[in-house]
Design a protein that fits this description.
Number of domains: 3
Number of strands: 5
Order of helices and strands: HHHHHHHHEEEHHEHEHH
Structural class: alpha/beta
Strand order of the largest sheet: 3-2-1-4-5
InterPro entries: Homeodomain-like_sf, RNaseH_sf, Tc1-like_DDE_dom, Transpos_IS630-like, Winged_HTH_dom
CATH topology of the largest domain: Nucleotidyltransferase, domain 5
Strand content: 5-15%
GO molecular function: nucleic acid binding
Protein name: Transposase
Distance between the termini: 79 Å
Number of helices: 13
Radius of gyration: 35 Å
CATH class of the largest domain: Alpha Beta
CATH superfamily of the largest domain: Ribonuclease H-like superfamily/Ribonuclease H
């Protein structure tokens, strides 16, 4: 170990100048080691003073050359540093916008590991997946859920015509709800099966999750009234023409009672009650001939208005199902009855708060929400 005052005056001045100009905390710490040692401090005292390890102090006080600041750089990791060139980054930006299939790959999405492998083949520069992730983050890219696109299956002309006509119905229902009402109708299923999710735990000691999963499913058919966002949802075994007709009858009876409360008689409902426009998809049992005949004969106020093909974004009740599933996604249910009870409160008793301005996730297009 060098004695106190082992540095020459010029060495000390050079180290002090480098110390004042350094923006590198590692280099600053190593210069201080040499200066403190020259001041007569022991390795132990330097360790306590700088808050670093004894081993680091012992290493750099021996291997650090006060006449060569380059010697204070850690040479034990030389060769591991990899740098992305401008050419590399430009190629990465082009690659991330392409589908892997365009380059002959069978996999469907780029991971950072796959990007690293391809770019190494093209440029000879080998970067880790984590380094590529950092580059993409700086370029404002993030690994997000993709949105399903239905545009290749849709008819733009039919969608535009439907949208224009529907908008007219919605405006009329908002002004004259006693004359016309628009109900968005659909079916959905809610599973009792618990999805395994991430949880907090100490590093190296992951939280244990039981492998036993509850099974069960609750099927719901129902509608959403546009002008006041009233919801009417019914529990069904499964979607059939018969169950569809039965739920429409219940909806018709509910609206008939509303008409009676206003002072009309039940017999006057077909004439004085509102026209009920049901917006729904093209499920086969919605178009069953016997069901359509029963609706026309016994439910004259109800008129079915079918969506264009592959256009769930026009059905506002989709946002109700999405919000309900989002609400229950982290909950555990002991039985189907418990799940039904919660869904009854959420959907029919108004406990579910819905952000009507949101877009429906993975439905191909934005929802009509106002």
């Amino acid at each position: 170990m060098p004695a106190k005052g082992y540095l020459t005056q010029s060495q000390k001045e050079n180290l002090q100048k480098a110390l004042s100009e350094s923006n590198n905390p590692q280099l600053t710490q190593k210069i201080l080691m040499l200066l403190l040692m020259d001041d007569g401090k022991t390795y132990k005292e330097i360790t306590d003073w700088l808050g670093c390890s004894y081993r680091s102090v012992a290493y750099w006080c021996v291997h650090g050359d006060p006449d060569n600041l380059e010697s204070l750089k850690d040479g034990r990791n030389q060769g591991n540093y990899r740098k992305a060139t401008e050419e590399y980054i430009n190629l990465l930006m082009c690659l991330i916008e392409k589908e892997p299939s365009e380059l002959g790959y069978e996999f469907g999405r780029w991971t950072t590991a796959r990007l690293s492998t391809y770019l190494e083949e093209q440029t000879g520069i080998k970067l880790s997946g984590e380094q590529i992730r950092r580059i993409l983050n700086k370029k404002k890219y993030a690994y997000l859920w993709a949105k399903y696109s239905l545009e290749d299956k849709q008819n733009p002309q039919n969608r535009e015509a439907f949208k224009e006509k529907l908008q007219g119905y919605l405006e009329a229902s908002s002004i004259y709800p006693d004359k016309i009402q628009v109900w968005f109708w659909d079916e959905s299923g809610f599973s009792l099966r618990v999805i395994r999710r991430k949880n907090w735990g100490k590093k190296g000691h992951p939280t244990k999750v039981t492998g036993k999963r509850s099974r069960g499913r609750v099927n719901i058919m129902g509608g959403l009234r546009f002008h006041d966002k009233k919801r009417m949802c019914y529990f069904i075994e499964k979607g059939t023409g018969e169950s569809f007709y039965e739920q429409l009858k219940q909806l018709n009876n509910f609206l008939k009672n509303e008409c009676v409360i206003l002072g009309n008689s039940e017999s006057d409902f077909p004439k004085l009650g509102p026209k009920i426009l049901i917006v729904l998809d093209n499920a086969s049992y919605h178009k069953k001939k016997t069901t359509l005949a029963e609706i026309e004969k016994h439910l004259p106020n109800i008129q079915l208005y079918f969506l264009p093909v592959y256009s769930p974004d026009f059905n506002l009740v989709e946002l109700v199902w999405h919000s309900a599933k989002e609400y229950i996604s982290h909950r555990l249910f002991k039985s189907v009855d418990e799940l039904k009870h919660l869904l009854e409160r959420l959907l029919n008793q108004g406990e579910l708060i819905i952000q009507w301005g949101r877009k429906i996730k993975n439905k191909g297009n934005a929802a009509i929400a106002n």
